[in-house]
Design brief:
The structure holds two protein chains of two kinds. Chain A is an alpha/beta fold. Chain A has 30 helices and 39 strands. An eight-stranded mixed β-sheet of chain A has the order 17-16-27-28-29-14-15-39. In chain A, helix 9 runs parallel beside helix 25. The longest helix of chain A is centred in the middle third of the chain and has 19 residues. By secondary structure, chain B is mostly helical. In chain B, helix 1 runs antiparallel to helix 2. The chains are: A alpha/beta, B mainly alpha. Chains A and B meet through helix 22 of A and helix 1, helix 2 and helix 3 of B. Bound molecules: iron/sulfur cluster (3 copies) and FE2/S2 (inorganic) cluster.
């Protein structure tokens, strides 16, 4: 094995179509117009020495190392900033160039420490490489004069010297090694879009500085790692590299955190992970990353990770470690006993959006073929199930319509109920790049999210609607588009059902849907809605991105339909730059839905009542399948409380923390006789479990994840599972214990089964993925290369369907007892319920969940910033600390739910989306009052959790 | 049902859900309303839920939206309870 090779072309690729031919060192080379001479040379295999250029950022031309000579031109232009021109004759190596380069290098080295042997970048340092490349043999100037290298000189402090900044938990900044090439500064601006770094001072005095003389941790830096990647020296270096050393091989794999699905090179030393570096050829991330995927993998070796299976009689007992065989046999006999005693429908399972497609497929197969029912659901229930329903109804397929590259062609971007810079950071960066190039932005969100106003970006419109009024605002946008005649008639006549459009148009045109009419309950200024509608309809390619702020409502599915209506009415479907794009939460939410995790659908979104589909699986699996839809998670819990649902197999989900109305979830789990939890840690749900099966991380198994753009990415095993088995193996063993004849030897065989049974995956195989890198489904005979953009010539369902979207106020209303509306969200450094990120150094950025409250509401209640406050709803209460801000409007409060002690879901109610039962997380009527500490429930809960996590009788001791 | 208390029993929830579905389809063209409601429940409700639903419908529970009652005629009655 070796390191995955990556070529640095020095400057970004040109997108021009016109080609130019020139001669470099006697070789003819043809490249797109606008390409730099440096890049053209590299494409011809000629490496021009360089320091300040790298192809992730635009050239700056400061180091003067990349000089070339061009016949007929004077001087020695920098090849990184000089574009090609037809017929140029370029020489990259002449005696004049050699002398200049040596001189340049000599100057650099004279102000650089010569501790190469013990430097962390030894073997991976471009300064070192260039010294070698230009043949530098000695340095005439010593360190006697001005330098940045020595802390003390002749017994006196050297004012130019700066100490290392080690404040960031994941990388260090050592100014003494900086060559001031500004690659980091440009990476932070151009790639990440945060503008955290500047070059201070001029000439010999110039220095890289985070923010205004701050250290990295207290600056604006979001720790994405782009600058570290860009740095040619050891100045910015991963702490893991300093500690471990340089990697010797690397493997391409996929981030297991969010739905962007970034590709990474896992750089290894033996089985030790040295660092994760974003892969340039990754089509979702194009070489960028965020703090989670790049750095927050330490949870995989965290001391709290459970490595042995455990069993207990009652949930009040301590855990007892057992052998795997004992655990499987126990679960199998319990599940069979329960089915015998209470009926076949008395057990079920939950698939994981964090596990691979293959693992999800197996869990639903175990339930359908082994349990003999359809009681399978997944956490997508609580996030994007309305997307599936809404887009299924209107377009005919349950997924986003674009690839991420599409945003590079958008002119107007609408973001609804999503916070891409925090929730989907790498997409957020790509979006910001487009916005800085001039695309217009419309944000529809109760809260002023970061993207509304960030460096060099200002939203054209921010519609700060009252939580729960999405449908009203979306319908009002449609009202303006229809009544002002801004719709795209040609598109609608061609692609949609015209009479359905007319029906819908008449509906939205009604005065009651006008921006003026809805102002009183949405709180949005009518002229802003009108302006936004006009901009979206007439501003060029319009793309809509949305998140959980759309789906997690009583009318989540209706809002998704309203979004689809709007895209169809303006003709924004079926080409690059447009479309409807759900920003999926977890890494494999898309995949888990695709793989048949819903109780009414077999893999590929085919209803269980469809005989032809069942037949395909019945034949392959050799069993009869139920044609009745099974229970969804909330229904399972209801049935458990009612006594007809007694056993559950939960793979990699923490429903006690992620699902609404915690008390109800706890009651449901407590009423079951066999709760089996398979996870990395004793999560909150495990407090109510009878069996714990230790799971594996994405680093420890092979498989695939499908990201929000339907892209199937490979996950590759880089180390032996610490718990002994990949999750797919555990499910298989369990199935075998229940009498199923499964014999998969590798996940590729599971993918082959998926491809054989699911038309949209027909051509997918590990060999094909190895060849293609990744593909976007549908990938079959019709679209062998996959489908970056859907509905190109027509909708999957045939004609696009316009559906009336009537606003219905949620029953979760404010009143005298609960006068404020709580809405929830997430932040960058933490992920979902935080089980992983809380077990990494990411906690330095988010130690606790805080309640954001407007100064006005805080003052009324005598609350100061940082005070403990009690948050009460109709469901329950909890306490957390207040953060006073003007990001939320008066009347609205906001919190994240990354920490279990906050128990934000004690507050949320069991209201849910009418079509899918997706819980209404985004609106809860609450009261906020001063408090002096944790609520009774929190104290009780902590005690229960503490009791329940006890482990006795370690296996070694027991035997 | 009081809105100051989260709904409690599964029956309460089923009624609430059915009425919520009816509320959506009420705004749709007339011809699609009953079909929409029954189709939705047939597609997504497990047998236990439909069983409890019909017990209440058959008793003439007054909390159902009239449109739900109308749609009930098109909703699949679940099979008899049977053991494995
Ligand atoms: S880590 Fe990212 S955000 Fe922080 S300074 Fe570097 S590029 Fe900028
Ligand atoms: S920190 Fe690295 S990338 Fe930034 S200017 Fe210094 S040497 Fe260049
Ligand atoms: S968390 Fe998301 S954006 Fe960050 S590296 Fe992973 S996939 Fe990419
Ligand atoms: S690489 Fe061209 S000037 Fe530095």
């Amino acid at each position: 094995m070796s390191l995955v090779p990556e070529i640095d072309y020095g400057t970004p690729a040109s997108r021009a179509e016109k080609m130019v031919t020139l001669t470099i060192d006697g070789r003819d080379i043809t490249v797109p117009e606008g390409t730099s001479i440096m890049r053209a040379s590299m494409e011809a295999g000629i490496q021009v020495p360089k320091l300040c250029a790298t192809d992730m950022v635009d050239a700056f031309g400061s180091c003067r190392l990349c000089l070339v000579e061009i016949e007929g031109r004077n001087g020695t232009p920098a090849s990184c900033t000089t574009p090609v021109a037809p017929g140029l004759k370029v020489h990259t190596q002449t005696s004049r160039l050699k002398d200049i380069r040596k001189g340049v290098m000599e100057l650099y080295i004279s102000d650089h420490p010569l501790d190469c042997l013990t430097c962390a970048a030894n073997g991976d340092c471009e300064l070192q490489d260039m010294a070698g490349a230009v043949g530098l043999r000695d340095v005439r100037y010593g360190y006697e004069g001005d330098n940045h290298v020595k802390a003390r000189e002749n017994g006196e402090a050297n004012a130019r010297w700066m100490p290392k900044d080690e404040s960031n938990p994941y990388f260090t900044y050592d100014p003494s090694k900086c060559i001031v090439c500004s690659r980091c500064v440009r990476a932070c601006e151009e790639v990440q879009g945060t503008f955290a770094l500047t070059i201070e001072g001029r000439g010999f005095d110039s220095r890289v500085s985070p923010g205004m003389h701050e250290n990295f941790l207290s600056s604006e830096c979001v720790s994405c790692g782009a600058c570290v990647q860009a740095c040619p020296t050891a100045t910015l270096t991963e702490k893991s590299v300093i500690e471990i050393g340089q990697p010797e091989h690397s493997v391409v794999t996929t981030c297991a955190y969010c739905g962007v699905g970034c590709s990474f090179k896992a750089e290894m030393r033996g089985e030790e992970l040295v660092r994760m570096v974003p892969w340039k050829d990754g089509k979702a991330n194009r070489g960028h990353s965020c703090v989670k995927g790049r750095f927050a993998y330490g949870y995989s070796t965290h001391k709290e990770r459970i490595l042995n299976p455990m069993i207990r009689e009652k949930v009040s007992d301590p855990w007892r470690e057992v052998t795997w065989e004992e655990a499987y046999a126990h679960v199998a006999s319990e599940f069979r006993r329960i089915q015998y005693q209470y009926g076949r429908e008395a057990i079920g399972g939950i698939t994981s959006s964090r596990c691979t497609n293959e693992e999800t497929f197996l869990v639903q197969k175990l339930i359908r073929a082994g349990f003999g029912n359809n009681n399978v659901d997944t956490c997508a229930r609580v996030c994007h199930s309305p997307t599936g329903y809404g887009l299924g109804q209107t377009f005919g397929t349950s997924a986003g319509t674009q690839d991420f590259d599409s945003v590079e062609h958008s002119d107007v971007v609408v973001i609804i109920g999503a916070n891409p810079t925090d929730g989907h950071p790498v997409f957020g960066s790509r979006l910001k790049k487009r916005l800085r190039q001039g695309a217009k932005l419309i944000v529809i969100d109760p809260r002023r999210t970061d993207i509304v106003r960030s460096p060099h970006i200002e939203a054209a419109y921010h519609l700060p609607l009252k939580p729960g009024t999405n449908v009203a605002v979306m319908t009002a946008l449609a009202h303006v588009i229809v009544t002002e005649g801004l719709f795209d008639e040609k598109f609608i006549r061609e692609r949609c059902d015209w009479s359905e459009f007319e029906d819908w148009a008449a509906f939205v045109a009604d005065e009651s849907h006008s921006p003026e009419a809805i102002e009183k309950y949405t709180g949005v200024k009518p002229e802003d809605i009108r302006g936004a509608a006009r901009l979206f309809a007439t501003g060029g390619n319009g793309a809509i991105y949305y998140g959980l702020g759309v789906t997690e409502h009583s009318q989540g599915s209706t809002t998704v339909m309203a979004i689809a209506n709007l895209a169809m009415a303006t003709g924004n479907i079926g080409r690059p730059g447009v479309g409807v794009n759900p920003l999926r939460g977890q890494n494999n939410v898309q995949g888990s839905c695709d793989m048949g995790s819903f109780p009414h659908e077999l893999p590929g979104y085919r209803h269980v009542s469809d005989d032809a589909t069942r037949e395909i699986f019945e034949k392959m699996w050799g069993v009869k399948l139920s044609d009745e839809p099974g229970l969804r998670i909330p229904n399972m819990l209801d049935a458990a409380v009612d006594g007809s649902f007694k056993g559950i197999y939960i793979q990699g989900e923490d429903i006690l923390q992620s699902d609404p109305d915690t008390k109800h979830v706890a009651a449901g789990l407590a009423a079951m006789e066999c709760v089996v939890v398979q996870d990395l840690f004793l999560n909150e749900t495990a407090n109510y479990a009878h069996v714990f099966l230790p799971g594996s991380t994405f680093l420890e198994k092979d498989g695939t994840f499908t990201n929000a753009e339907r892209r199937i990415n490979r996950v590759r095993k880089v180390m032996t599972p610490r718990n002994g088995y990949g999750d797919w193996e555990i499910t298989q063993k369990l199935a075998q214990a229940m009498g199923l004849d499964w014999n998969y030897t590798h996940p590729f065989e599971i993918m082959d089964e998926i491809a054989a049974t699911t038309p949209s995956f027909a051509l997918v195989s590990y060999d094909y993925l190895d060849k293609m890198g990744s593909v976007q489904w549908p990938c079959n005979e019709k679209t062998p290369l996959g489908s970056p953009i859907m509905h190109i010539d027509g909708f999957v369902r045939g004609k696009g369907k316009f559906i009336r979207t009537e606003y219905v106020a949620t029953h979760e209303r404010t009143g005298p007892r609960f006068p404020l509306l709580l809405t929830t969200g997430r932040i960058l450094s933490q992920y979902n319920v935080g089980a992983q990120t809380r077990r990494t150094d990411n906690v330095v950025w988010h130690e606790e969940d805080r309640l954001e409250i407007h100064a006005h509401d805080a003052e009324n209640r005598g609350i100061h910033d940082g005070d403990w406050v009690k948050l009460t709803s109709r469901s329950g209460d909890t306490t957390l600390r207040a953060l006073i801000t003007d990001r939320v409007a008066p009347g609205v409060v906001y919190t994240t739910f990354h920490h279990p002690t906050t128990q934000a879901n004690v507050i949320t109610t069991d209201f849910s989306d009418w079509a899918t039962n997706c819980p209404e997380y985004k609106v809860t009527a609450v009261q906020v009052s001063p408090s002096n500490g944790p609520s009774d429930w929190q104290v009780e809960y902590d005690e229960q959790a503490r009791q329940s996590r006890r482990i006795v009788a370690k296996l070694e001791a027991a035997e | 049902m009081s809105h100051d208390q989260p709904h409690k029993t599964t029956d309460d929830k089923l009624i609430y859900m059915a009425n919520q579905i009816a509320t959506f389809f009420k705004s749709q063209p007339e011809g699609e309303q009953v079909k929409g409601i029954s189709g939705h429940i047939n597609k997504f409700w497990e047998q236990r839920m439909r069983r409890a639903f019909f017990v209440m419908i058959d008793q003439g529970d007054s909390r159902f939206d009239p449109l739900v009652v109308k749609a009930a005629a098109l909703i699949k009655r679940p099979a008899e309870v049977k053991q494995v």
